[in-house]
Write a structure and sequence with these properties.
The protein is α+β, with helices and mostly antiparallel strands. It folds into two domains: 13-76; 84-159. The protein is 48% helix and 24% strand. It has helices spanning 18-44, 49-77, 115-120, 143-159, and strands at residues 13-14, 79-82, 86-91, 97-102, 106-112, 122-129, 136-142. The chain is elongated and about 70 Å long. InterPro entries: YdbS-like_PH.
Length: 165
Amino acid sequence: METGKLRLRPPRHALDRRAIAWWRTQGALAFGPAALVLAVLGLLIPPAAGWLLAPAAVVAVLGVAWCAVLPRWWFGLHRWEVTDTAVYVSSGFLWQEWRVAPLSRVQTVDTLRGPLQQRFGLATVTVTTASARGAVRLRGLDAQVAADVAEHLTERTDATPGDAT
């Protein structure tokens, strides 16, 4: 965390590298069961084998491609930073988004660790602001870094006067 002037710029920090494995696991859990069910049904119902095994193969190939390519790509695109004046986040691959949330607009700071995140030692920090755009999420952070960020944000927002606009 550093002191700085509020300005639109790319955030400095990459996510934790374990986010790649986290995303891959999410992809496997999304594609794997569908491919497995189609394949098993195709093997159990011989008259339907052609129209069940072909989609099973397509889903499996798409899942493998998804898991092999997208998580590394996403890792290169997601950035975050917390300064004494704002929270910066950039994400997206087709629709790229840069968000800056001034600390004077922060309402709550939450930390989430779902079962997969716990398995990989990761966490998500959600910074809810007075913005119609919604919360700013720092996904794929090391769990201890997330706890430190949440503590820092809570301390800083408590010390930051609210925005009167």
